[in-house]
Amino acid sequence: MPHVDLKYYPRDLTAQDKQALAEAIASVLKQHLNTTDDAISIAMHEVDAADWKAQVYDPIIKPNLSTLAKKPGYQL
C-alpha cells in the first residue's frame, strides 16, 4: 500500500496536469513495487518557497537525510 506525499513549489498545474502527474507516479510504483492502482494513494501539496525550510526541509528532510533514497542537492 504505497502512499506518496508530494510537496513542491507552486506551479500553474491544471487539474489535468495533476492527474497526469499522479498517473505517472502510480505507473512507476506499479512497475517497481508490483502493486495495483487500488493500493496507491498520492497527495500533492504546494508549498511556497518562503515556507519550504520551515514546512518541509526542517521537519521532514533534514531529520531523515541519512535514510532518504534520494537526497536533495541543497542544504538550508
From TrEMBL:
What GO molecular functions are on record for this protein?
isomerase activity
Tell me what gene encodes this. Answer: pptA
- Protein name, as recorded: Tautomerase PptA
EC number per UniProt: 5.3.2.-
> What keywords is this UniProt entry annotated with?
Isomerase
Residue ranges of the TM segments = none
Q: Which domain of life does the protein's organism represent?
A: Bacteria
Q: Which residues form the 4-oxalocrotonate tautomerase-like domain?
A: 2-54
Q: What class of enzyme is it?
A: isomerase
Entries under InterPro entries matching the protein = 4-OT-like_dom (IPR004370), Tautomerase/MIF_sf (IPR014347), Tautomerase_PptA (IPR017284)
